[in-house]
Automatic annotation (TrEMBL), chains A, B:
PANTHER family: AMINOPEPTIDASE (PTHR46112), XAA-PRO AMINOPEPTIDASE P-RELATED (PTHR46112:SF2). Coiled coil: none annotated. Pfam families: Creatinase_N (PF01321), Peptidase_M24 (PF00557). It comes from Paenibacillus azoreducens. This is Endopeptidase. Residues 185-388 form the Peptidase M24 domain. InterPro entries: Creatin/AminoP/Spt16_N (IPR029149), Creatinase/aminopeptidase-like (IPR036005), Creatinase_N (IPR000587), Pept_M24 (IPR000994), Peptidase_M24B (IPR050659). Residues 14-176 form the Creatinase N-terminal domain. SUPFAM superfamilies: Creatinase/aminopeptidase, Creatinase/prolidase N-terminal domain. The lineage of its organism: Bacteria, Bacillati, Bacillota, Bacilli, Bacillales.
Length: 404, 404
């Protein structure tokens, strides 16, 4: 079944309003890449591709009769689809010239072209929009902790009468429960990541380097997975387990471990799965480590069901790994929520400090990674959807250590 | 000639120390993705790929007898090449387990695994490192305006005795003049971008969509440009000129403009060039606009030489464009420095507010972009190297409007 993005945005808005009621918040203002997209339905290229910060705002109101307002520069805003549901657009001028030679925009067209990013104009529009909606005092949730200092200062200046509270926790709570449309995207991104791995390993042999394998993975996505872009592909060969921005060109040798920890983007949603292979036969040490991690991972899969504490899954799986041949295994977390975050991992975490429980609709990555000097990387990572009575694995590749 | 990265890092350090002398700064601390790489020579995957902020620091001292100190989490630091010149490494533990089953690290191995990012540990190490070098008072330049607020607060807490000044201007000044090694990377990234465009246009015909062309461009880089990754490929077909994170699948129609504005990554350095094509014959309006932009662009190329004000290049080229058939052309800038910035554009700009002049060793993008409702995008963008007596174009593709 194909779910609808409009229904998704409506569902997000409804749940956001329940939280706003509970927390007595008048509006949520998203200014980060992922959260701007989450509340508005529109991904900003300036944010996603050019990595700019605080260049657009999505303002969602507690009052359900009010549309979400998108505040964006005129150049990017020209790409917002006319049928973006339940949104209203306000634009500010930027350094890019946009012309209207045929008068298509009528009186809406302005030719101002500043030579700097217009953060004051953007927050000025926010102040206007909030005032139009009668919000000149009370609590408004903004992404304080992810904004750069000059932006926070400009924001405080623009809306001096408001109590600005941190939006991070509210947005984490919202994003942790996926809508059916989001689950569809994540299911597809898992499938693409697995196609990428399955195609890539066909060409791996002794002598293959991490650099060659990384290129092969990108090519496999282009040619076999509908061109879906890789979000990250942390691929290691042999002992050099550290994540690399420029990949290692050392040829793989017999016995080398080959680890894929990869994520593929589908409509802004990203998978995060991992599998490990070995060139030829694994050493006894590797077999022992893999066995312990696998036992812990198997146990993790049994511990995911609604109402179960996330901390308990961490504690029990750590116990299994440590008592299965890796007594010194250690780790800050054994899993995390996934979805929009470009950092792959997002809260909540399966960690000792997590107080929450699993809920239906969560999509969780379960991982038992091992990195060892003189060994390399060993990982098994699955994505699961928490269902009404357990969980469903979204990826299907064998969890065995496979020889290539 | 192939220049050496070690010499590059030495050259950067020497120039940085001259600025530190002039500004009476004891040390520069880089915390952003690009600047951490610039000062340390090591690109952080956590920063580049996973887009994390404030996860590593590079500390460069005014005292030339002191090595640059890299402060980084233990997991990423394991990938720092042993021969990274003139650097000293300090690590802090992170949530990722790194094991030492064979005792290869001896007493240097610690098993602590916190479940959060350890920003306080990182800035604690900074405080220690500065104190070891006798810096407990005086001016230290840090990237205040690009750090998030919680990081600035944690930093101020860790080094209460220091006067923290903004590092942004110092780093902009440094980065604007390229070393021979950096020019080599940018020359290669221009060449790859042009190969990408030249290969891609071979397959474009009526019916091609922006989505198909974008996939073809990525494939061309993988198969014809040594797998160099695209940094951005803002490709538009027809009237929809706005930058798109998810590309338009509408088939191109006769008369549609096809615009490539693309950059390719080579060792962390990115080109930024643009060309425009047309499906069939251009309309008279498009011919008129293209002619005006081309005249302005030709004039820009004549205005780049050492000692010439950047503002003058802007003013004169704007005059040419406006008097060549586009009287209302407007724009915040007509060019910018390029190199490390993931946002493609970096200071200084060819803009009305720029006070600086061109210097040999600068790499500058010259652009005369036009976006029009009902028209689409028209761009010519070249990269040039400022030489001792003029400039050298780093890209070679025809600057004509070419029919496909």
């Amino acid at each position: 079944m194909v779910y609808d993005k409009k229904k998704h945005l409506k569902n997000v808005a409804e749940r956001a309003r329940m939280i706003m009621e509970r927390e007595n918040i008048e509006a949520i203002v998203a200014s980060s890449c992922e959260n701007f997209y989450y509340l508005s339905g529109h991904p900003s290229t300036f944010m996603y591709t050019l990595r700019m910060s605080e260049v657009a705002l999505a303002v969602m109101f507690r009052d359900p009769s009010r549309s979400t307002v998108i505040i964006m520069n005129e150049f990017e805003a020209a790409g917002i689809s006319a049928d973006l549901p339940g949104c209203e657009l306000r634009t500010y001028p930027t350094w890019v010239d946009v012309d209207d030679p045929f008068g298509l925009r009528g009186a809406r067209y302005e030719g101002k072209r500043p030579d700097k990013h217009q953060i004051h104009e953007m927050f000025g529009l926010l102040s206007e929009v909030l005032a139009e909606h009668g919000i000149t005092s009370g609590k408004v949730a903004v992404e304080l902790s992810s904004m750069r200092c000059p932006a926070v200062n400009a924001l405080r200046e623009a809306v001096p009468g408001l109590e600005l509270t941190e939006a991070g926790l509210v947005l984490t709570e919202l994003r942790a429960r996926k809508t059916p449309w989001e689950i569809d995207q994540l299911r597809q991104s898992c499938a693409f990541a697995e196609i990428g791995i399955a195609e890539t390993i066909k060409g791996i042999r002794t002598g293959s380097s991490a650099a060659e394998i990384a290129d092969a993975f990108r090519l496999a996505l282009l040619t076999h997975a509908d061109g879906a872009p890789s979000r990250f592909h942390m691929i290691s060969v042999g002992g050099n387990f550290a994540p690399a921005h420029i990949f290692d060109t050392r040829p793989g040798e017999p016995g080398d471990l080959i680890k894929f920890d990869v994520g593929v983007d589908v409509a802004g949603y990203g998978s995060d799965i991992a599998r490990t292979f070995v060139l030829g036969s694994p050493s006894d040490t590797v077999k022992r480590i893999y066995g312990a991690l696998r036992a812990g991972h198997d146990r993790l899969l049994e511990l995911i069901e609604p109402g179960q504490p996330m901390k308990r899954a961490f504690d029990e799986a750590m116990h299994v790994i440590r008592s299965s041949g890796l007594p010194n295994y250690n780790r800050g977390h054994l899993g995390h929520s996934a979805g929009l975050s470009l950092a792959a991992e997002e809260a909540p975490f399966l960690s000792p400090s997590e107080e929450g429980v699993f809920h239906p609709g969560m999509v969780i990555c379960l991982e038992t990674p091992y990195y060892g000097y003189g060994i390399g990387a060993i990982m098994i990572e699955d994505m699961v959807l928490v269902t009404d009575n357990g969980c469903e694995r979204l990826n299907k590749l064998s969890r065995d250590l496979i020889s290539l």
